[in-house]
Structures are given as C-alpha cells and as structure tokens.
Amino acid sequence: MKELNELNGATPHLQKVVEDCLTEFTGPLIGCEFGVPFGGAVERIGKTWKGRGVVYGFDTFEGHPKSVAYSCPDTMEAGGQKALATWCMDEWYEKWGVEILTDGHIAEELARQGIDNVRLIKGLITSKSILPFDGDLHYAMLDLDFPVSMRDAYGMVKNRIVKGGYLCLHDVIPKGHIHGNNELYKDIISEGLFEVFQEAPESYLAIMKRI
User: Fold this and answer.
1) Which range of residues forms the domain containing residue 15?
2) CATH code of 50's domain
3) Helix (H, G, I), strand (E, B) or coil at 166
4) Predicted structure pTM score
5) What does the radius of gyration of the chain's CA atoms come to, in whole angstroms?
6) In total, how many domains does the chain have?
7) Residue 129 Cα to chain centre, angstroms
8) Coil, strand or helix: which one is 142?
9) Smallest Cα–Cα separation from 168: which of 74, 57, 32?
10) Cα 61 to Cα 55: distance, rounded to the nearest angstrom
11) Higher model confidence: residue 93 or residue 20?
C-alpha cells in the first residue's frame, strides 16, 4: 500500500525507530499511527512487528474531515486564506483515488498479506477520544495535519508512552509549514515529558523520546 511519507523522506527515519523498538524494549510492543492515508505505514509496521507487537491505526478512512478543516481557526492563514492543512491531501486523492482510503480496503489488503497485528480505528479524533486498549505505548506517530487534531491526539498518548518510548510528530517543523503545529511542538518541549531525539526539517518530522 502507498505511504505518503516515503515521498518526503520521513519513512526511513520512522522505520529506524520502529526497528529500534524491537531491541530497546522487552515483551509485546504497542504502537499508534494517527493519520493512515492509503495504509502504507501500518502495513510497514505490521510487517516489522509481526509476532512481537500490535499497531493501531486511527483515521476517518474517508479523507480529510472538511467539517474540522473549515471550522478550525488554526487552518486559516492571515487574510482568511485556507492554510496548507486544509487542502494538502487533495492532490493525492485526485492522483490515487479515494477508494483505497477506506478501512475496508486497507483491512482486505492486510488480510491478503497475512498481516494480523494491525487494528484500524475509524472516527474523528477529538478532545473526548481515548485509546481503545490497556497497556503502555512504545511508539506513536501523529500526522493529522490540523493543529486541533494534533493536540487532541497528543492528549490521548502523552501519559501512556513508556519511558524511552517514541513520539513522532509530522508537519511540526519547520516553523510556518502548517500554522499552529510548530507551536504545539514547542509546547510539548516546554512541558518536559519528552526530549528531542531527532529533527528532520526537510521531511517535516520531529522525533521525541519520553524522559
């Protein structure tokens, strides 16, 4: 399946972290991907962690939630123009189609490959969302574009990531790439729960570790 972050160079950094989890932690692993367009990332992690861990993929599985995009002040730039977060996926929907976005399609493809350690969770992420499982998280990737959704997802995972666990944040650097996301990144740094592990601004990616 397709993985958009292969196009911007983020995937190798993320895959290195996923592989490091296998040696840095003992016992079963749990990971989360927030934003699962086209299914490539959860497919990759499922293959890597097969027999060792489970990854949960959160998405609307219907494309960008325009109801959030057009009502969220953080998606409006100065002058009232729609910000990048609002339209950044449109070209990929046009290029690849929306049929392969659905949880049904992704689940069928995972089953065809025998990948049985991926759980797809459909729905909007809001301030009331909670993780649908018990236990500690070892890896979380937040790639929801909209600052309000990114903050809500961070609220879901921040107290569940084990010491030494990884928090990966896409579109938070460089400053100004997506309005509001760099501010979230700075807030997380100042909160003191996580330390910066790696920054890859050319891929819009920051990776942090739980202190």
Assistant:
1) 4-210
2) 3.40.50.150
3) strand
4) 0.90
5) 16
6) 1
7) 15
8) strand
9) 32
10) 16
11) 20
Mutual angle of helices 181-191 and 147-157, in 10-degree steps: 30
Give the separation between CA 12 and CA 177, rounded to whole angstroms. Answer: 21
Q: What is the largest CA-CA distance in the chain?
A: 52
Backbone angles phi, psi at 72, to 5 degrees: -90, 120
Neighbours of 109 (CB within 10 A): 15
Strands 161-170 and 53-59: unpaired
3-state DSSP helix/strand/coil % of the chain, to nearest 5 = 40, 25, 35
On the CB side of 200, CA atoms within 13 Å amount to 15
Determine how many CB atoms are found less than 10 A away from the CB of residue 1.
Answer: 17
Give the helix ranges, DSSP H, for the chain: 10-24, 40-48, 66-69, 84-87, 90-96, 103-112, 147-157, 181-191
SS3 assignment, position 198? strand
**C-alpha dihedral (6, 12, 16, 18), degrees to nearest 10:** 0
Q: What are 23-76's pLDDT values in tens digits?
A: 999 999 999 999 998 899 999 999 999 999 999 999 999 877 766 655 455 555
Instruction: Report pLDDT for 86.
Output: 67
Judge whether residue 81 has pLDDT over 50.
no
Q: Identify whether the C-beta of residue 58 lies closer than 8 Å to the C-beta of residue 34.
A: yes
C-alpha 137/C-alpha 76 separation (Å) is 33
198 DSSP β-pair partners: 207
Residues 6+ apart with CB under 8 A from 86: 64, 69, 70, 75
Please give the structure tokens belonging to residue 88.
Answer: 């950044």
